[in-house]
Design a protein that fits this description.
By secondary structure, the protein is α/β, with parallel strands linked by helices. The protein has one domain. Helix content is 22%, strand content 39%. It has a ten-stranded mixed beta sheet, with helices on one face. It is globular, with a radius of gyration of 21 Å.
Length: 420
């Protein structure tokens, strides 16, 4: 880990001075900062980065573009951008969806003002590491008063034959009174088994009155050890509806946060996760109410197979002065093996009196009465279990805006169940 490597990379990519200085400041505090605290998850010995920064080589694992549809999208494999698709009418309205270098040419002031505003580099060691060592990025920008009707899709592939760190930064900026539906996918491709690390940071800045539907599907491979952070910053009366499907095969720690800064802002975080094999997943989902009459809801559903481990931490924090705020959360886990491990930890931090808050948490097995009912209608036990689990996870899967992707998610869940 050297400053020279970071400087060389930054200069080679003609990054502006402010970004180069941000990288160096982050590098300087890496050793001073603690790792993020994920309750009841021991990840301190995981390999989450080797202190290298470089471009990935061109991949032989290129997806079939003909199957991707004609909606607005950006596709990257490793650090390489291989497809940009944006209708002319959205281009004329000022919508931008491209790699960081191109975006810095088109909207430099916007990026400088927004970068790091939802996820500060000095929060913890992994945030600082990310800022210093991210090697590729994408920017989605929607100007004020623009309604994007088509689903915008960001597809980010990790090459399973490459050991180049998958350190991706995604910056989504939605202007005042604008609206967008965005689908994000992180996925490993290829048949390789090369060990790799991923440090991913996604920032969503929703300006006053913005309406954002944010869906995500994470399907990184079993040989990828992952830290992923998704952060939302909400302006006045802004809403971000999150639907997050965590379907990775490797060990994962995740941090999904919404900061309700503006009065009347809303956050709805729906998360589903499936752990299998000996996989360990720790997921922190947090809503912090700063604004008056702000509303934050967390709903987490998980399924654990074999010897998998899954931890849900739901954190609702109402800051002093956030009068009329509402923080609610629910975390539920189904365990399909007596060798599985799970925690569902509700945490409420209330610093204001004139508020509403509540939580619920449960861990259990498939209801035998549900199975009996389905089996009495002629279904075998495995099919009955699949239907129960589909229904249990369906609260998030149904929020995915593309039917083909919803069907794919059901297939992923079914394939994990088939491996039991």
């Amino acid at each position: 880990m050297t400053k020279e490597a970071i400087l060389d990379f930054s200069r080679a990519h003609a990054e502006p001075d402010w970004l180069r200085e941000r990288r160096l400041k982050a590098y300087d505090v890496i050793e001073e900062l603690a790792l993020p605290k994920i309750e009841r998850v021991k990840f301190h010995r995981w390999n989450l980065g080797d202190g290298t920064i470089s471009d990935s080589p061109l991949s032989a694992n290129v997806p079939d573009f003909t199957a991707l549809g004609d909606n607005p999208k950006l596709v990257q494999v490793g650090t390489q951008t291989i497809l940009e698709q944006m209708p002319s009418e959205l281009v004329e309205k000022g919508v931008v969806f491209t790699d960081l270098a191109s975006a810095l040419d088109e909207i430099p002031e916007v990026i400088e003002a927004a970068f790091g505003s939802a996820a500060s580099y000095d929060e913890d060691k992994l945030a600082a590491y990310h800022t210093a060592y991210f090697n590729s990025a994408a920017v989605l920008y929607v100007p004020d008063n623009v309604e994007v009707e088509a689903v915008v899709e960001g597809i980010f592939y990790q090459d399973s034959d490459s050991d180049t760190p998958f350190n991706k930064h995604v910056l989504v900026i939605v202007g005042k009174n604008s609206s967008i539906s965005y689908l994000e996918r992180f996925e490993s491709i290829g048949q390789g088994s090369t060990k790799a690390t991923a440090n991913i940071s996604v920032e969503v800045i929703a300006a006053d009155g913005a309406q954002v539907k944010f869906s995500a599907i994470d399907r990184l491979g079993e040989h990828v050890t992952t830290y992923i952070s998704r952060r939302g910053r909400h302006g006045r009366d802004a809403t971000i509806d999150w639907a997050l499907d965590v379907m990775n095969e490797g060990d994962v720690i995740a941090d999904f946060d919404s900061d309700l800064v503006g009065d009347g802002s809303h956050a709805n975080l729906k998360v589903v996760a499936v752990s299998s094999g000996r996989q360990v997943q720790g997921i922190d989902t947090r809503v912090t109410n700063y604004g008056c009459n702000s509303v934050g809801y967390i709903l987490q559903h998980g399924v654990i197979l074999e010897r998998g481990t899954l931890t849900f931490n739901g954190i609702g924090h109402i800051i002093k002065g956030a009068k009329g705020a509402d923080a609610q959360q629910e975390s539920r886990v189904l365990m399909l093996s007596d060798k599985a491990r799970s925690d569902a930890n509700p945490i409420l931090l209330i610093d204001e009196n004139d508020v509403t808050a509540g939580h619920a948490a449960s861990i259990g097995q498939v209801d035998p009465e549900d199975l009996y009912y389905l089996m009495s209608r002629g279904l075998d036990q495995k099919t009955a279990e699949q239907l129960v689990i589909r229904g249990f996870l369906g609260t998030v899967i149904t929020e995915i805006p593309i039917k083909a992707v919803r069907d794919e998610m059901i297939d992923v869940v079914d394939s994990k169940l088939e491996k039991r």
